[in-house]
Amino acid sequence: MDERAFNEDLLDYLDNSPTPFHATHNLATAFEQAGFIRLDEAAAWSFEPGGRYFLTRGDSSLVAFTLAGDPAQTGVRMVGSHTDSPCLKLKPNAAFKAHGYWQLGVEVYGGVLLNPWFDRDLSLAGQVSIRHGDGRIEQRLIDFARPIATIPSLAIHLDREANENRAINKQTYLPAIVCRDDVAFDLAETLNEQLRASDPGLANSEITAFELSLYPVEKAAIVGLREEFIASARLDNLLSCYVSARALLDLETPATALIVCNDHEEVGSGSAVGARGPFLRSILERLTATSENYARTIAQSMLVSTDNAHGIHPNFSDRHDAQHAPVLNGGPAIKVNSNQAYASTNETIALFKQACGTAGVPVQSFVARADMGCGSTIGPLTATALGVRTVDVGVPTFAMHSIRELAGARDPHALYRALGCFFAQA
């Protein structure tokens, strides 16, 4: 796939994936349409040489893989990313009235950069549990797909220190305004109406629980005077999810290759669907059948953990180590931390560089300043859980964890080419 078509498809994926549930659903649809066989964790599995398979867990995490032979003989080339992004999630009893307005109470999910959430056109999406007339419970996606809420800033006339020193109270500053209180507003009924509008067959069903997030309706875009950048919400880390999936879907050389897209990375990965949970390990154990074959497989396998890297910001260059400060459109960055916040080793760095060299892709390095901490990824967690060799890499990005992030328009396709060569490595 050429770069222009690749980026157009990436932007569509970003726009249509406002939550981890939507992101996973869209990936699953792409694999199903490409002929991958959907597996059910509760069923018995059997595999065919040359087979292509995928499955989801919790509707927010996904694993897809191809088989070219016995994994115990070849190992598995794996790429990991995550489906979640920092955001504002609705509380269970979200709706309340205050001073003439209906508002929605929210909980901060992950390390959100909060200031950019003010004065945005916001919609609401996620997953709901519905109870049918026969008592059966089912999960469905929901998306209002239009601006229904906003979080207005306080006018500077009432907060003269706003530009100098403003702390954001997460409980009192962030509830979103949805309408005046001179009209009736029932959140549960509003959700039911939205769901029934999308599927009239649900007229006798009702929502009994939900997991919903606010999100900006502004579309992903190619920006810059020379169209060099991609601006979007959720680049961290849906960009990596899309790139890894596309690399696996477009793989031409038979390979035993796998991608994992985990939820809950932004809050520590500690869940049944997160990287600290058993999802990936349970699949590899079933794939290899015996503990002996599992151990042999892991010993020959490698994981590329793909999560966005911090590009050097020209206005804040003092926050970077000048020798390890990747630039946008300079190629993927290998992330290194001697305290194991990243799982890269000299061996895995060399192997990833080899794949990049084969693909003709430039490589950069990121190391945080020695006097500053750094984030982490699913890389060390997966390496610890599986004992698999791992390298942490990512596309350089500005404004990570903002409601509107920025990446280079050439880097996603470069990473895609590199991952394609990595999957094909013997």
Could you characterize the architecture of this molecule?
This protein has helices at residues 3-15, 20-33, 71-74, 187-198, 235-249, 279-288, 291-299, 346-359, 378-386, 411-424; strands at 37-38, 52-57, 61-66, 77-82, 87-98, 101-109, 122-131, 137-143, 176-180, 206-216, 221-223, 229-232, 257-262, 302-306, 309-310, 333-335, 364-366, 389-394, 396-398, 405-408. The strands form three sheets. A nine-stranded mixed sheet has the order 1-2-3-13-4-14-18-16-17, with helices on both faces. Helix 5 crosses helix 10, helix 6 crosses helix 7 and helix 8 (346-359) crosses helix 10 (411-424). It starts with a helix and ends with a helix. The protein has 426 residues and is of the alpha/beta class. The protein contains ten helices and 20 strands.
Descriptive terms for the model:
single chain, 426 residues, alpha/beta, 9-stranded mixed beta sheet, 6-stranded antiparallel beta sheet, 10 helices, 20 strands, 27% strand, globular
Q: What fraction strand?
A: 25-35%
Q: What strand line-up does the widest sheet have?
A: 1-2-3-13-4-14-18-16-17
Mean pLDDT: 96
Question: What's the number of extended β-strand segments?
Answer: 20
Count of individual helical segments: 10
What class would the helix/strand composition place it in? alpha/beta
Name the helix and strand elements from N-terminus to C-terminus, one letter apiece: HHEEEHEEEEEEHEEEHEHHEEEHEHEEEH
Shape summary: globular
- State the major sheet: 9 strands, mixed
Distance between the termini: 23 Å
Give start-end ranges of low-pLDDT stretches.
none
Helix content: 25-40%
Radius of gyration: 22 Å
